[in-house]
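sorry for the late reply, my laptop died twice this morning and i had to redo everyting from scratch. anyway the thing you sent over, i finally got around to it. pasting the sequence first so we're on the same page, its 399 residues, then the predicted structure underneath. double check i copied it right bc i was rushing
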Amino acid sequence: MSTDDTVAADAVADPGNGGRRGKRRPPSVSAVSSVIAIVVIVGVLVGIAVHSANQYFVFSPGTAPLVTTNANCKARGGQLEMPDGTPCVHLKVPSDKTHKVAGRLLMVDVEVSQANALDWAAYQLGLLGNNRQLVSVAAYAGDTPTSELGCQDAQQMASANQDAALAALNALHYQVHEKYLGAQIVAVLSGTPAWDAGIKCNDLITAVDGKPVDSAGTFTTLLKPLAPGKTVTLTDHPGGGKAAKEVKVRLVTPPSALVKDGFANRSYLGVAVGTMSTPDLPFHISVNAGGIGGPSAGLAFTLAILDTLTGGKLTGGHTVAATGTISPDGQVGPVGGVQEKTFAVEKAGAQVFFVPSAEYGQAESVASKRLDVVPVNTLQEAIKTLVQRYGGQFPITSP
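ok and here's the structure:
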C-alpha cells in the first residue's frame, strides 16, 4: 500500500468509536496470520487444481449432424449447416445413383476441450454431471504429443470416409481394388530420431535406402534388421503435396519401457505408421464433415451411403444415429465418448442409436426410454436390425 493510501485510511470514521474520527486500531498479529494462512491455503489449492486439470481433457456432448446429399448443406460459421441451422455432413454420389431418403441418418461427435481448475474441482466434488467426463491425457493421447492430435483426427476422418465407401460397395457386391502408396506417418514422438530429423505427422515414406515402401508392413520389415547407430535415408513426401525429399535419420536403441514391452533386438525411429492407399471406386463417393475429425463416423457414413444408393428406405422412415469405426469388410469397432454421444443424439431427435457392442452399457446407462440403443459388431447386424425391427428396405443386388 502507498503512503497516500495509508493517510486516507487514517481519516475514515470508525463505526466502533461512536462515529468519531480517529485512527483505526491495527489488526492483531493473530488475525493477520490467519488471513495470510487462508490466502496461502487457497493459493496452494488453486495451484493443485490447475496442475491436476492440465492432466485431463473434458468430454462433453457434441452435435449430431445429418448426413445428406442436399446441396444446401454448406459451410456457415465455421461448420456445415443446413439453411435452418441444422448441423450436417455433405455426402456426394453421382446424381443418377442418388435417391430421396425417407428417414434421417445422423453421425455424432464429442466436444473435447482442455480441462480447467473448475472442471477438476467439480469432478472431485461429484458435480461434473453424467453428461460430461474427465479423460486423462494419457488415456486419450497415449504417447502421442498433444500437438499431433489434430493431424491424427484429420487422418482418421479421411480413413473413415474411404473405409465407409469400401464397406458400402462391398455390401453391394462391387469388386474394388486398392493401390498402396506407402507408409503414412501417423505420429512422431518428441525427442526421438524422427522428431529431430523433422519428420512430421501426415508425411508419406516411399523408400528406405532406395528400397521401395508401399505399406506400413514393408516399412517395418525394412527397418527391423537394422542395428542401432545405423543411419538410413528415407524418401519422405511431406503432407500437403510438397516435393519429396531425402531425410537421413540415425537409428537408436529403443527406450527401456519399449524393451520391456517386447520391442527388443531392434533399432528405434520414434514413429507410428499406417498404410496409405487409394481405392479404384466404380463411381465417385465422398463425404465432407467440415472440421469434424476422428474415425468414429465410419458406421454412420456407411449406412448413409447405402441408404442413398439403394432407394432411400433403409431406415424405414426413422431417425437413426450411429457411432463406430468401420473396416472395409464391415467390422464395427469401438470409439470413445459414447455417453456424451448418447445425450447428443437424443437432443437431435434420434429414435435408434447403433453403438459398438463393447460400449453398449455406457450408452444404455444414460439413454431415456425414447431411444432404442442397439449394440452391433458388424454392418450386416445394423442392416438386419433396420429391416426386421424398423421396416427398412435393403434390396441387395449385384451391379
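The chain has twelve helices and 20 strands.
thats about all i looked at so far, will dig more tmrw
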